[in-house]
Amino acid sequence: MLTMPQSTRCASSECCSATTRRADRRRSARRWVVPIAAVWTLSSIPFARAQDHHHPPQDAELHEKFYSTWMMPDNPSRSCCNRHDCYPTEVRYHDGYWEARRREDGRFVRVPWGKIEQRRDSPDGRSHVCMPPPNSGYRDDEVFCFALGSGT
């Protein structure tokens, strides 16, 4: 009786043992693990850099000073942001609420009324928001703080 070497792939399931078929499936699955991991890793690097460099260079110091002292409007004992999750944003008024554009995915997120700053003005006349990026462990619509710009 002739036997096939374990490394030979079979054209039909009749000539393959269950062990050979399982080994082929594992090899096939392993071929995709490294490329998928590489794509995921490489796609997250530009995302992190984009967060650090979103502020216009001429406003970086002004924003840092504003963000580092900004407290949550609905919980004034808690800082609402840092330079990573706060940024100037585009806004719109929609269905009776302000919405801020999230920079990571461009989605407009509804701003709860309690998160709108009433005690401080925007440092540069633009609207600013502090919100986590999507899929960061927070609710998808989480907003920490929001300051409406004077040009809105």
Structure, described:
With 152 residues, this protein is α+β, with helices and mostly antiparallel strands. It has 2 domains: 11-53; 57-147, no CATH class. It has 2 helices and 8 strands. The protein has helices at 18-52, 60-68; strands at 71-72, 75-79, 86-88, 91-94, 97-101, 108-110, 128-130, 145-147. The strands form 3 sheets. The chain has a 3-stranded antiparallel β-sheet with strand order 3-7-8, with no helix packed on it. The termini are far apart. The model is unreliable at 37-53 (pLDDT under 50).
Mean pLDDT: 75
The biggest sheet amounts to: 3 strands, antiparallel
Structural class: alpha+beta
With strands numbered from the N-terminus, the spatial order across the biggest sheet is 3-7-8
Please describe the topology of this protein:
Elements: H1 18-52, H2 60-68, E1 71-72, E2 75-79, E3 86-88, E4 91-94, E5 97-101, E6 108-110, E7 128-130, E8 145-147
Give a nutshell description of this structure.
The chain is of the alpha+beta class and about 150 residues long.
Question: Which descriptors would you attach to this protein?
Answer:
alpha+beta, 2 domains, three-stranded antiparallel β-sheet, 2 helices, 18% strand
